[in-house]
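Please, is this right?
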Amino acid sequence: MQPTLLDGDKVWVNKLAYDVKIPWTEISLAELSDPERGDVIIIDSKKAAKRLVKRIVGVPGDTIYMQNNALVINGEAAGYEILSEDEDAIIILEELPDSAHQARLSNRFASRSNRSYGPVVVPEDQFFVLGDNRDNSSDSRVYSFIPRGEIMGRSSSVVFSLDSDNSYLPRGERFLDGIDEIH
């Protein structure tokens, strides 16, 4: 999820953002709200056999299409602005119909097979998710749609962060930092 999340970030998960579930199960007792485009969610993925952190870009009924990492939702192309570039990556601001966030595109040789996808229509009660590190993400392009029942909750902030490149010292500036604040 770089650049939104860094290696060593621990995020807050609001497990009551969408549903009230029986503790330690995926059994929903009541739906509180619907996941929305732009939400960063935690997924207990059966297909991936692990937990994933991804961003919702497609909600039920949306038609999603990607051509060379350019996202089109319901016939509307997402807006893009280059924020920074180095030899490894380009950091862009991706503007979706309801939100904006940063994403990372690789400048180096990477698997480019996932850069184009679709078109697909998101089925009822499922979601299309992408990682913000587009060229290094296993997301809906690999695992297909995410059922609502596999969404554990929404995250909107980093609780704390340990820098694996610096002897796991804390990154104080990231403590309680909002996920989608542009740095």
